[in-house]
Design a protein that fits this description.
The complex is a heterodimer of chains A (691) and B (356).
Chain A (H helix, E strand, L loop, with lengths): L1 H14 L39 E4 L1 H4 L7 H8 L3 E4 L6 E4 L8 E5 L2 E2 L20 E6 L13 E6 L7 E11 L3 E11 L3 E12 L4 E3 L5 E4 L5 E5 L2 E3 L5 E13 L4 E15 L13 E19 L3 E23 L2 E23 L5 E22 L5 E24 L2 E12 L2 E2 L3 E11 L4 E12 L3 H5 L11 E15 L5 E21 L5 E23 L4 E11 L2 E3 L21 E11 L2 E10 L2 E2 L11 E2 L2 E14 L9 E10 L18 E9 L1
Parallel strand pairs in A: 4-7
Antiparallel strand pairs in A: 1-6, 2-3, 4-5, 6-7, 8-9, 8-37, 9-10, 10-15, 11-14, 12-13, 15-16, 16-17, 17-18, 18-19, 19-20, 20-21, 21-22, 22-23, 22-24, 24-25, 25-26, 26-27, 27-28, 28-29, 28-30, 29-31, 31-32, 32-35, 33-34, 35-36, 36-37
Chain B lengths: L1 H16 L19 E6 L9 E6 L4 E3 L2 H6 L7 E7 L2 E6 L4 E6 L5 E5 L6 E8 L2 E6 L4 E6 L4 E7 L13 E4 L2 E6 L5 E6 L4 E7 L4 E6 L5 E5 L14 E5 L6 E6 L7 E5 L5 E6 L1 E6 L18 E6 L6 E5 L6 E7 L5 E9 L1 E7 L1
Antiparallel strand pairs in B: 1-2, 1-27, 2-3, 4-5, 5-6, 6-7, 8-9, 9-10, 10-11, 12-13, 13-14, 14-15, 16-17, 17-18, 18-19, 20-21, 21-22, 23-24, 24-25, 25-26
Classes of the chains: A mainly beta (691), B mainly beta (356).
């Protein structure tokens, strides 16, 4: 069926060559007789909400670049954050500014979606095509939206605006290792109503071949003596995945300042967990599988008036996670070694209001609540009396977060913002979290802006940190710290013409009572507050767009981060060599480059990512078994769009897009996490059809 | 057009520079450890595959780290649990790699491996030149292996266990029997008839017996850890017991406080003194009537994780895992507790093996 559709699409491109290739597709309602508008000058004012904020906005070009990409891939190649990925469709976490993944907060349409059990988010489960707008709020800037983001906040949003009438988009991707990606979006819009339906399905055995440098196979003689050894070429074992996502949104706009919205996103993933490169088990005798079904729903009401606006949101998240580690004991007979089940129900509510008595003043207030109910069953044991019991926990926790903000622009070129936030987790209240932001325009012509901010912040332990059996530690203290940053940014030119911009930010934060899971003499891990970490450094961003001759256009975006993240705690033992050293798995340097060279309806897109060496030991030793070398990755794609304005059977223009992507362009033989194999050069071909 | 050409050329140069990650395979290194010595199993971190083997020559007070990798050119694996010397070979059990490697004890080169039929191996114990038992976690079976052919030839089914709650741990031989502790979510020791490869007796000893030794008087010593707070299986104070191997009857019980976590029960070379870790290093005569009131070696802010006593001269070697994410350190003491040396090894040193 997939092949038939692909053939039909390619066929249609051949059968209708008279299409107006080279012209832009216009949505319905904008196809009236063309006429020229007089030139107008638009003067922009900095939004009061952005006073002093350090933010990375990911544009639709980054989010829509590749249907096969998760948000983890998008962030890897388009931002300065560190993405620790175990490979496609496996755990991918994001950390800002030398902090840990649990210090990154994530929200979707205003609702926090970090897993309350784990305290972190797996970005590999978020398809980029389900996000219309993504922003990264670095460090202190996250306090504007939520508490607990010691590193920062990733804001993911869908937007209600769609073109008028019915429209559809279908994308199919076929890639190496029998990987298939399919994506469908249908939208409808009129004056009052908008509806958007998105469905995505990805699957692959993901059984790429790689040279296993961590193992050798033996060659034996007849007497079972080893006469030779070699690094084998192996398949990635137990790496298959099937991910399904569907997102339905409906919005109603009264056109009198009120908008009602509903977003419902369901995810079902069925993933095997790949075996380590050092595993000698026969993957046919083991099943190591994780299944997850998650429903996230948000209903919203926005009420806008000239000087004030209010909003209410309510949401619900249900997550059902199952992890099975099974062993074939005799042919055809399987026994469970681990049968872990977790159910999470989260109810969410948010009330927020803004009041702007003058154009120079803005007051906001918000109060959010997340009620988590978690039931975690990790193991089934036989008791001493012969009965059976579950090892796990069943806990509830109400998390409240309230904030008051005042933003003031005494003159056009100066802005000051003050946030006071209070968080409560269960019975425990954090001290007041204050944050102060200042910015000013030094040179309006270049939009040269200087900004600075300072804040205190707290992060409460996750439910697993507190209650997981065995090892949960209910006596853990919240991690807490003070952060500040300051920087310069500039933007010059106009979109579509010659443009250039950039920013440089210095940041510095100290985090105390850092939580880390350590082994115990009883054979399990247990979390403890152990370290004081000093994370500081520089973030640089640059972008440029140049219209070249004869319809050529070049756009470049780049980031660079220098992120020393140093253990400043007490020695854990007299022989401790970790004090003063970089934290494990945190690169000191990281950089990305995204380049797009376009000519008419052709585009060549190049993505490059760099992480400096990462230590896997807290003492930063260079050993044979504990050090990851520099990581450099390049992806390249070539795309071509065709538009057919008189496509039969529809009044809409039809756009076809073909795209070939080469991942790991230089066929690097690498790992990004110890003992997790990664694929060599691989290809994906996409066909996109838009009506 | 010239500008475009230059930009494309620059981009191509950039691409070329942007793709050269360095990865090289290590050459195999020659070692000579014919004078015997101490092997240290460094577990590494779970799922990191950074478990390693260190070798220490007590006579020269010299240590070599990562000797398996350096001698063989590949990783030892994930969670190096234990090592046993038998028949001139070292048998290294790599828990989360489902493998047991056999190495030459003098040059550390691999001689063979048992890599089929194991679930989560913990310890290997030799019954004869042609039979060894391998205990396992997450399995209710003890694997029977033939060290000559390096094959698993069968299993001993342990009664009263499922795969999910399965755990067999340390073993000692007593006559034709092997006595084995059942540890995680268990409370028993079992007695296996090696002629029939069958469990013939068992005894309840307290929650989670983690280690066992057989002393010079022919008595078993078993240490339990008592489980953990909140465990549905139960939580109690740890116990040290002297047990008669013939009847499995508990003859003497020494009780620890509920907060204590004793582990790593071991014997001196003469078999008349037992040692264990409980934050500090403790020891007592096998004839003692009560637990000692003072430790043999006091912790100095250390995180002791492994313990052994030299069978040659009674020196005590204690492993400090520090933060479990860096090279651990081994402290070497004389029998009276005088510090005489220290050396760094690998990540999370937990088990020792003497070749003498």
């Amino acid at each position: 069926m997939r092949h038939l559709l692909l053939a039909a699409l390619i066929g249609s491109a051949i059968l209708f060559p008279s299409g107006s290739s080279g012209s832009e597709a216009a949505p319905k309602g904008q196809q009236a007789k063309p006429h020229t508008l007089p030139t107008v000058t638009v003067t922009g004012r900095r939004p009061l909400k952005d006073i002093g904020v350090v933010k990375t906005e990911l544009d639709s070009a980054a989010l829509r670049d590749n249907v096969a990409q998760s948000m983890a891939d998008v962030l890897t190649f388009n931002s300065g954050v560190f993405v620790k990925s175990y490979g496609r469709a496996t755990l991918s976490t994001v950390s800002f500014r030398g902090t840990s993944p649990s210090h990154t907060q994530v929200s979707w349409n205003g609702m926090r979606i970090s897993n309350p059990m784990l305290g972190m988010t797996d970005f590999s489960t978020i398809p980029s095509f389900f996000v219309d707008r993504a922003s990264l709020l670095h460090g202190t800037s996250s306090v504007n939206e939520t508490g607990g983001g010691l590193g920062g906040l990733v804001l993911l949003q869908t937007i209600p605006d769609v073109a008028e009438g019915f429209h559809a988009q279908y994308i199919q991707g076929i890639g190496s290792f029998r990987t298939f990606d399919e994506y469908l979006r249908v939208t409808y819009g009129n004056d009052h109503w908008t509806s958007s339906t998105r469905v995505a399905y990805s699957s692959s055995p993901n059984d790429f071949t790689y040279t296993n440098h961590d193992k050798k196979l033996n060659i034996y003689d007849d007497n079972h003596q080893i006469i030779g050894q070699y690094h084998p070429k192996e398949k990635n074992r137990s790496g298959s995945f099937k991910d399904f996502n569907a997102l339905q949104e409906v919005y109603y706009n009264t056109l009198k300042g009120d908008r009602l919205g509903l977003s419902a996103w369901v995810t079902h993933s069925n993933r095997e967990l790949p075996l380590l490169t050092t595993s000698y088990g026969d993957d046919r005798e083991f099943e190591n599988r994780q299944r997850e079904t998650t429903l996230r729903t948000v209903v919203s009401w926005d009420h806008n008036r000239t000087a004030w606006k209010t909003g209410l949101k309510a949401g619900y998240i249900h997550t059902n996670m199952a992890y099975d580690y099974n062993r074939e004991t005799t042919p055809g007979t399987w026994a469970a070694m681990t049968r872990s089940r977790s159910k999470i129900n989260t109810y969410y509510g948010l009330a927020e209001g803004e009041y702007s008595p003058t154009r120079r003043l803005l007051f906001t207030a918000s109060l959010s609540a997340h009620q988590h109910m978690v039931r975690s069953e990790d193991k089934n044991v036989i008791l001493t009396d012969g009965d059976r019991a579950i090892v796990g926990y069943d806990r509830k926790r109400l998390e409240l977060s309230g904030s008051l903000t005042a933003r003031w622009q005494p003159i056009d070129r100066l802005g000051v913002s003050m946030v006071v936030r209070e968080d409560c987790y269960g019975q425990r209240w954090a001290p007041v979290i204050p944050a102060l932001f200042v910015d000013g325009i030094l040179w309006p012509k270049l939009n040269l802006r200087v900004n600075a901010s300072v804040s205190r912040n707290y992060r409460f332990p996750s439910l697993n940190d507190l209650y997981f059996l065995p090892g949960g530690n209910p006596d853990l203290r919240p991690e807490h710290g003070i952060s500040y940053d300051c920087g310069l940014s500039a933007q010059w030119g106009r979109a579509g013409g010659v443009e250039a911009g950039g920013s440089a930010t210095w940041f510095d934060s100290t985090i105390d009572d850092w939580i880390i899971w350590l082994p115990t003499t009883k054979g399990f891990y247990s979390p403890r507050n152990v370290k004081r970490v000093h994370a500081y450094g520089v973030e640089l961003k640059a972008n440029a767009g140049v219209p070249l001759a004869c319809d050529w256009h070049l756009r470049l975006d780049g980031t660079y981060s220098w992120t020393p993240s140093v253990n400043r705690g007490e020695k854990m033992s007299p022989a401790d060599q970790s004090v003063g050293r970089q934290l494990p798995y945190v690169p000191r340097h990281s950089a990305t480059v995204a380049g797009r060279l376009s000519w008419k309806r052709w585009a060549l897109v190049y993505h490059w990512c760099y992480y400096s060496e990462r230590f896997t030991m807290s003492s930063n030793d260079y050993t044979l078994t504990g050090h990851l070398p520099t990581y450099l990755m390049s992806n390249l794609s070539l795309e071509k769009s065709l538009t057919f304005s008189r496509f039969p059977a529809t009044t809409h223009p039809l756009t076809l897009q073909f795209k070939l992507t080469v991942n790991n362009l230089f066929n690097e033989d690498y790992v990004t996490v110890l003992s997790r194999p990664m694929p060599g050069r691989n290809f994906e071909f996409f066909v996109a059809l838009s009506l | 057009m010239k500008i475009i050409t230059r930009i494309i050329a620059a981009a191509l140069v950039g691409l070329t520079l942007g793709g050269c990650m360095h990865r090289d395979d290590t050459d195999e290194e020659a070692f000579d450890a014919s004078q015997g010595g101490l092997f240290i199993c460094n577990e590494g971190n779970f799922q990191y595959s950074n478990g390693t083997l260190s070798y220490y020559n007590p006579g020269e007070a010299a240590v070599e780290n990562e000797v398996f990798y350096r001698a063989n050119g590949f990783r030892l694996g994930d969670v190096v649990q234990s090592m046993t010397a038998y028949g001139g070979r070292g048998w290294i059990v790599v828990n989360n790699s489902q493998v047991v490697f056999a190495i030459d004890l003098t040059n550390f080169r691999e001689i063979g491996r048992i890599d089929r039929g194991l679930t989560s191996p913990r310890y290997i114990h030799f019954v004869s030149d042609e039979k060894a038992y391998i205990t396992q976690l997450w399995d209710n079976r003890i694997a029977i292996a033939n060290p000559k052919t390096m094959e698993v030839t069968g299993y001993i089914q342990v009664p009263g266990m499922t795969m999910e709650s399965g755990s067999t741990e340390q073993m000692v031989s007593w006559g034709k029997y092997v006595i084995c502790t059942c540890w995680s979510y268990q409370n028993r020791i079992i007695k296996i008839d090696t002629s029939a490869d069958r469990v013939v007796a068992e005894a309840e000893v307290g929650i989670q017996p983690n280690s066992i030794v057989l002393d010079a008087r022919g008595k078993l010593w078993v240490l339990t850890d008592g489980g953990y707070q909140g465990s549905p299986y139960g939580y109690e104070g740890a116990r040290l017991m002297r047990i008669d191997p013939a009847t499995l009857k508990i003859e003497r019980t020494f009780r620890f406080a509920i907060k204590d976590s004793p582990a790593e029960l071991t014997l001196n070379g003469a078999g008349d003194r037992i040692y264990w870790l409980n934050d500090d290093v403790w020891s007592m005569s096998v004839d003692a009537q009560s637990l000692p009131v003072r430790p043999t070696i006091k912790s100095q802010g250390t995180k002791y994780y492994g313990l052994t006593v030299s069978p040659i001269n009674g020196d005590i070697y204690v492993a400090d895992a520090i933060d479990y994410q860096q090279k651990g350190i081994i402290y070497r003491y004389e029998a009276d507790g005088t510090l005489i040396g220290r050396f760094y090894v690998g990540v999370t040193p937990g088990a020792f093996c003497w070749n003498y």
